[in-house]
Amino acid sequence: MIEPHPSGGYILEELAIGMAAEKRLTVTEDRIEQFAEASDDFNPVHMDEAFASKTAYRGRIAHGLLSASFGSAVVGTILPGAGAIYLSQTLAFHRPVRVGDIVVTRMTITAIDELSARVVLRGEAFVGDELVMDGDATVRVPRRRRKI
Amino acid sequence: MIEPHPSGGYILEELAIGMAAEKRLTVTEDRIEQFAEASDDFNPVHMDEAFASKTAYRGRIAHGLLSASFGSAVVGTILPGAGAIYLSQTLAFHRPVRVGDIVVTRMTITAIDELSARVVLRGEAFVGDELVMDGDATVRVPRRRRKI
Fold first, then answer.
1. Residues of A (72-111) whose Cβ lies below 8 Å from B
2. Which of A140, B60, B62, B120 could form a disulfide with B111 if both were Cys (CB 3.0 to 4.6 A apart)?
3. What CA–CA distance (Å, rounded) separates B102 from B92?
4. Do residue A82 and residue B38 have CB atoms under 8 angstroms apart?
């Protein structure tokens, strides 16, 4: 697994297909509360156990984009890190994530377009052995500055 | 524009293509700080004006998934509202969103599959007249309960 670059971010010339980085984060009550405040998404399925227990989820679940944000954190702070410009993202939610779950989010470089400086990272999030979410992030990465 | 359903959420039989709902939210320092705490994404391009002023963005920008979460808030709290199950999401980021920007996020139903109870909502986020982000959300919606 890749560690953050000492400068804060990797440049295009330092990246290769197969490079991967991950983050392990626990979904706490605090994270759900902070995400709700940030997004203004107080959907009771996330906030209200009594309500959520009567839904198809049978209990409170984390906001889908909260789990997704862990992948964005990997992209923005480890691989490629600061300097990468987020262009697009796909997300598929396979299983609910609950308070107390430990989410391991791994981002792996699957494509590099040298011409456009675009890099695709495949994201996968696991709780234990189960894939809870996956998707692709496309970012533009800075190039090495030319010497004058 | 659709208002939240008195029960908290719309069921499949109440939905039609073209129904739309929107939310208007200001990107404040507080929201960015809360999103960073929730996601553990302290990328300096979001948090550090001195760093961000030297990047391609020429100043701090909001996390892309923070703006995206405003669309998720519309889906989860207005249309279809509580009870909808998030299956997938696509996102394309067209322009940076900055502290103080007022983001208007509109979600419009573009497809309904009666058989699978799946609904596609087209999401568009604007700052002033400019489209800053768009993408599609796919959700599964509860059906009317059959009378026994």
1. 72-73, 76-77, 81-83, 85-93
2. B120
3. 19
4. no
**Total number of residues shown for chain A:** 148
Single-letter amino acid code for the residue at B95 = R
Whether the pLDDT of residue A147 is over 70: the answer is no
**pLDDT tens-digit map of A81-128:** 988 889 999 999 999 999 999 999 999 999 999 999 999 999 999 999
Exposure b/e, A79-108, CB count within 10 A at least 16 = b? bbbbbbbbbbbbbbbeebbbbebebebbbb
A80 within 8 A of A7, measured Cβ to Cβ: no
Q: Which residues contact B138 (CB under 8 A, 6 or more apart)?
A: B86, B87, B88, B89, B118, B119, B120, B121
Residue B71 and residue B53: Cα distance in Å, rounded? 28
Min mean pLDDT across A32-36, A126-130, B50-54 is at B50-54
Q: By the CB < 8 Å criterion, does A66 face chain B? A: yes
* CATH class assigned to A12-140: alpha beta
Contact B87 A85 (CB under 8 A): no
Report the residue from A38, A83, A90 with minimal CB separation from B66. A38
Q: Has residue B56 got a pLDDT over 90?
A: no
Q: What is the mean pLDDT of residues A24-28?
A: 96
B130-145: average pLDDT: 94
